[in-house]
Design brief:
With 141 residues, this protein is mainly alpha-helical. It has one domain: Globin-like (Orthogonal Bundle), CATH 1.10.490.10. It is 76% helix and 0% strand. It is built from 6 helices and no strands. It is globular. The two termini are 24 Å apart.
């Protein structure tokens, strides 16, 4: 990611952050529409899961300017998701639901440049998580 993309992600996140509860609801509704089988992977309630998602996104977005600090956190998250049954293909569905949610939350402010920046950020985070997950007992997530 370049500095301009990071700035776009961080600026647009400041718009989404105040509506994070609604954004989380939109995200999980869309995620389960895309793949209803994913519901089985979530043991906590949707509200609690939504808070966790938004907190992790906040950490990741802030950390984009200091990747060295957040990479270990993202790697640990990827490793822990193996135990929940998360597989590589689930990351694509999550990414699709995230981009859809951001488009809904940002409306006209979700420009092509903002979308491209978020796609770059998500690919960076998802790739880091998947690579770390593959380290878990040599099993591919």
């Amino acid at each position: 990611m370049n500095a301009e993309q990071i700035q776009r992600v961080q600026a647009s996140w400041q718009i989404v952050k105040p509506i994070s509860e609604q954004a989380a609801d939109l995200f999980y509704t869309r995620l389960f529409e895309l793949d209803p089988s994913l519901k089985a992977l979530f043991k906590s309630g949707q509200a609690e899961q939504g808070r966790k998602l938004m907190a992790m996104l906040n950490t990741a977005v802030i950390g984009l300017t200091n990747l060295e600090a957040i990479v270990p956190v993202v790697q640990n998250l990827g490793r822990s998701h193996v135990a929940y049954g998360v597989k590589d293909e689930h990351y694509d569905t999550v990414g699709e639901a995230l981009i859809w949610t951001l488009a809904a939350g940002l409306g006209e402010q979700f420009t092509d440049d903002v979308k491209d920046a978020w796609l770059a950020a998500y690919m960076l985070l998802a790739t880091t998580m998947k690579e770390a997950a593959q380290e878990v007992d040599g099993v591919s997530a």
